[in-house]
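Hello Y.,

Per our agreement to keep a running log of every chain we model this quarter, I'm adding this entry. I've kept the format consistent with earlier entries: sequence first, then predicted structure.
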Amino acid sequence: MMSTVKTESNLSANAAPEWLELVRRQVNSLRFGVVQIVVHDSQVTQVEKTERVRLAPKHLS
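Predicted structure for the entry above:
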């Protein structure tokens, strides 16, 4: 079974160091998932993180 959690952060267009640090933090906080960068008019405007929780399969005897 997988559970998906999606978070979004709107960012100012002039915050290149801020968005880069945000992406680093999002990637470092993931075990399984995706970090997506949204660009509008050549500027990063949003960072999305989708995290998957993987459960260990139960083996039948």
